[in-house]
Amino acid sequence: RGKNFQHDEL
Amino acid sequence: MNIFRLAGDMTHLASVLVLLLKIHTIKSCAGVSLKTQELYALVFATRYLDIVTDFISVYNTVMKLIFLGSSFSIVWYIRHHRVVRRSYDKDQDTFRHYLLMIPCMLLALFVHEKFTFKEVMWTFSLYLEAVAILPQLVLLQRTRNIDNLTGQYVFLLGAYRGLYIFNWIYRYFTEPHFVHWITWIAGVVQTLLYADFFYYYFESWKNNVRLQLPA
């Protein structure tokens, strides 16, 4: 995705 | 989301529920390290800074609130609840956990993915979580008879990050560009620290004897 990597894990 | 990560999150949730159950119902925190609980509260506080800025999913936000709420309430129970705090053995829980925070913060300042406040704090939370169990493991070695709930708590807490390792392997092979060495190495180190506990935990379960860690 364009957005900088989001931390999608807990 | 994949089955390994969901299983990991549920195992993690189970560990905090087991601990809350123990402390809230029998009003005792015998064998529980306050230091480890304080470190975990700090881990969640520094890892979930993005809870207000980045919305990932309802599940993600709800779980973050649960982990933040449970870790801080466990610290409150052990420190301030008039009955529970009497069962806290501060003479045994002597690990200098402040000495764990400093190298983790220094390492985060040098080894991170992006030099921003949130990213450095997030990386700090990864390094800190890897060693957060140490005061608890030291306390277990000093506590002669470990009660079942405390043993189950530590087991579930160690198992959750082990399941996350399978999640990272799965994501590495299914998602392009999913490479996060820092997370992976911290997670493997964290799981390895439980290795001897897992060994004695299974031995006690197999031989149906009380769990005891050699001093």
UniProtKB/TrEMBL annotation, chain B:
Organism encoding this protein: Lactuca sativa (Garden lettuce)
Family indicated by similarity: Belongs to the ERD2 family.
One GO CC term on file: endoplasmic reticulum
Topological relation to the membrane, as annotated: Multi-pass membrane protein
Pfam families assigned: ER_lumen_recept
Swiss-Prot/TrEMBL GO biological process terms: protein retention in ER lumen; protein transport; vesicle-mediated transport
InterPro entries assigned: ER_ret_rcpt
Name of the featured protein: ER lumen protein-retaining receptor
Signal peptide boundaries: 1-31
Upper classification of the organism: Eukaryota, Viridiplantae, Streptophyta, Embryophyta, Tracheophyta
Keywords: Endoplasmic reticulum, ER-Golgi transport, Membrane, Protein transport, Receptor, Signal, Transmembrane, Transmembrane helix, Transport
Subcellular location, record wording: Endoplasmic reticulum membrane
GO molecular function terms listed in the Swiss-Prot or TrEMBL record: ER retention sequence binding
Segments crossing the lipid bilayer: 55-78, 98-115, 121-140, 152-170, 182-202
